[in-house]
Amino acid sequence: MSLPAQPLPEPIEFDYLGLTEGRLVGYRDGWARQREVHAQVADRTLPGQVLFVEHDHVFTAGHRTQPHERPVDGTEVVEVDRGGKITYHGPGQLVGYPIVPLPDGVGVVDYVRRVEEALIRLLADYGLTTGRIEGRTGVWLAADGTRPERKIAAIGVRVSRRTTLHGFALNVDPDLSWFGRIVPCGIDDAGVTSLAAELGAAPSLTDVAAAAEPYLSDLLSFTGYTPSAPLLSRPQTAVSYGLQL
């Protein structure tokens, strides 16, 4: 089923924060930059932006994170103002922060679905069949008989002043052992994977970011689109995306 089109906003712009130089960006520095850009986009003095970044090792916790989901070794966790639970960011992971105004009639769930769709289409270019799992956010690979379903991209967002914050983390070639220190996104019955783990090799983060640009530009223009079918059905559960208008 195609979803209805919305009035076209200004084309979004892309900013590679240290990515082309191979520079890791501390999470707090990236968060500060998000807030600066968000204020300008929300004031309509700047068109929508997507910030691409590679963070140093960090755990971030949304407001629904439970104590047992945190690292047991006392590793620092940065508390953030997004929906969702705890996740990991680090080298080898492409993090994208779309900071875009939502047109009238576009809600946070539709926005999240569009980000998911952009990543699903991107990953198809690398030969990976991915999709959604009902009741769970992010982009997944289906269970294959020897492995459980596996998340390859996490999404956690906030909407303030009808403008988005935070975004997605796509595992290109991170050290997946870091996810073993937490309960990623509060999900304890599924796995985590990456492009490198699935394909045996991975492109550079800058190449993946460049390949993502047309899909994000298309889906975040808020024109009509046909969503990919979910991988499988699950009982629907309430999901907090951190909506704050």
TrEMBL record:
Main location: cytoplasm
A GO CC annotation given for this chain: cytoplasm
Family matches, as InterPro entries: aa-tRNA-synth_II/BPL/LPL, BPL_LPL_catalytic, Octanoyltransferase, Octanoyltransferase_CS
Active site: C185 (acyl-thioester intermediate)
Summary of the function given for this chain in its UniProt record: Catalyzes the transfer of endogenously produced octanoic acid from octanoyl-acyl-carrier-protein onto the lipoyl domains of lipoate-dependent enzymes. Lipoyl-ACP can also act as a substrate although octanoyl-ACP is likely to be the physiological substrate.
Annotated ranges, domain BPL/LPL catalytic: 44-224
EC number: 2.3.1.181
Localization per record: Cytoplasm
GO-annotated molecular function: lipoyl(octanoyl) transferase activity
Miscellaneous comment: In the reaction, the free carboxyl group of octanoic acid is attached via an amide linkage to the epsilon-amino group of a specific lysine residue of lipoyl domains of lipoate-dependent enzymes.
Binding site residues for substrate: R82, G83, G84, K85, I86, T87, Y88, H89, A154, I155, G156, G167, F168, A169
Reaction catalysis annotation: octanoyl-[ACP] + L-lysyl-[protein] = N(6)-octanoyl-L-lysyl-[protein] + holo-[ACP] + H(+)
UniProt keyword annotation of Transferase present: yes
UniProt-listed Gene3D superfamilies: Bira Bifunctional Protein, Domain 2
Family, similarity comment: Belongs to the LipB family.
Organism: Propionicimonas paludicola
HAMAP family in the cross-refs: LipB
Gene name as annotated: lipB
Pathway named in the protein's UniProt entry: Protein modification; protein lipoylation via endogenous pathway; protein N(6)-(lipoyl)lysine from octanoyl-[acyl-carrier-protein]: step 1/2
Pfam families reported in the protein's UniProt record: LplA-B_cat (PF21948)
Keywords of the record: Acyltransferase, Cytoplasm, Transferase
Lineage: Bacteria, Bacillati, Actinomycetota, Actinomycetes, Propionibacteriales
Residues marked Lowers pKa of active site Cys (site): K151
GO biological process, one term: protein lipoylation
The protein's name: Octanoyltransferase
